[in-house]
Prior knowledge:
With 234 residues, this protein is α+β, with helices and mostly antiparallel strands. The protein has a domain at 98-232: 2-Layer Sandwich (Beta-Lactamase), CATH 3.30.450.40. Helices cover 45% and strands 17% of the residues. It contains 7 helices and 7 strands; from the N terminus they run ααββααββαβαββα. The strands form 2 sheets. A 5-stranded mixed beta sheet has the order 4-3-7-6-5, covered by helices on one side. α3 packs antiparallel against α4 (101-115) and α3 runs parallel beside α7 (218-232). It is elongated. The protein starts with 15 loop residues before the first helix and ends with a helix. The model has no long low-confidence stretch (mean pLDDT 83).
Amino acid sequence: MSTQPEVDYGDEELSEQAIHDYLATHPDFFEAHASLLNSLHLPHATGGAVSLVERQISVLRQKDLKLEKQLKELIEVARANELLAAKIHELTLQLLSTTDLKTTIIALEEGMRSGFGADQAVLVIFGDPGAFDDIDIGRFFHVIERKSEALNPFKTFLDGNSARCGQIRDAQRDFLFQNDADEIGSAALVPLNDGTEVGFLAIGSTDANRFHPGMSIDFLTRLGDLIVGALKRY
Length: 234
């Protein structure tokens, strides 16, 4: 049998919401009623009971861990952005030192492979292939007429005029990466536009999660602008 005295509230019955609202507007209530605070116990997830103070400490610790995790994620993003900015800066310096279209494309291929760690990369330029016979950079450099049917799988991407990341269609992989298409798990497609369509850059990765639709495309857009600026010199 309980030894706690019964409290008479008269004719008014307090609702849980009324108690909640009162405590919410009087956060210092328990400071003036320390004895009541010490007598309150809340059920613990593992059974038994803990004091209200202990529960508050537990909640604060959980919030602290959550904030710490968010801070670490922000720091990681900041470091990644700083690294990308440094890579784009280095590529810019390399492109400024080139003297013709061929050395520019060679610098781009080297930058994609070593600077950005691309497993595969292809620079697609719209134009007459015969006009670029003097440039042989292997599979990285691909010149094709804009109206070619081979570009049909890229129609939606090219019409959208925005970088895209994630898994790409089989027809797109086969066109871009040819014999290595089956090894590509994800890719980034970067349009190269400056009033008129120039082409696009494709960066392929064997990691299916390297490029995904949720990632930021800011650095890819800047990379595309840089490439357009470098190609316009010639």
